[in-house]
Write a structure and sequence with these properties.
Elements lengths: L8 H16 L4 H33 L1
Helix pairs in contact: 1-2
Length: 62
């Protein structure tokens, strides 16, 4: 998974946070757990995105 076309990393994080808050309203404990699992997956994606961006920035500086 990656950021959708036309959205940068910051906008992606804002979108995920907004959707998460909306989804978490009135969730059961079980559903909240599933939401947490989804957000953890998004977090891993963001780490990968950051690593690629750092690599690209390093290439540009040379």
């Amino acid at each position: 998974m990656h950021c959708p076309e036309g959205i940068n990393g910051c906008e992606y994080v804002q979108l995920v946070a907004t959707v998460s808050m909306a989804l978490s309203h009135d969730l059961s404990a079980r559903d909240t757990f599933f939401l947490a699992e989804f957000l953890q997956s998004v977090s891993y994606q963001l780490f990968t995105l950051a690593a690629f961006k750092e690599f690209e920035d390093g290439k540009r500086k040379k």
